[in-house]
Specification:
Length: 93
């Protein structure tokens, strides 16, 4: 099943509407947002997906994360100290 999600990629000036499959991982979701915004924002490196202020573990699927239609996620760059996965299992993309 497809879930329409709003996504904001750090550094982009526009929000994006992504039709995400419920079995997509946070890695796949972040990569889709990065690919969709690449004409405006070009950067490489690790990313993390956030929803309601919390970082989502990379192994979570859209379903596992509890994301529902028209929820908003943000994808941010991960730097230095944030790069290591936390005890909660949140890693980077």
């Amino acid at each position: 099943m497809l879930t329409p999600l709003y996504g904001f990629l750090e550094g982009d000036t526009m929000g994006l509407l992504i039709l995400a499959h419920e079995d997509w991982s946070m890695v796949r979701l972040a990569e889709q947002l990065r690919a969709s915004a690449r004409v405006r924002v070009a950067y490489e490196g690790p990313l993390a997906v956030f929803h309601d202020g919390r970082r989502l573990p990379t192994h979570y699927s859209v379903r596992d994360a509890g994301l529902a239609a028209l929820d908003c996620v943000s994808v941010r760059r991960v730097s230095g100290a944030e790069h290591a996965p936390s005890a909660s299992g949140a890693g980077d993309v």
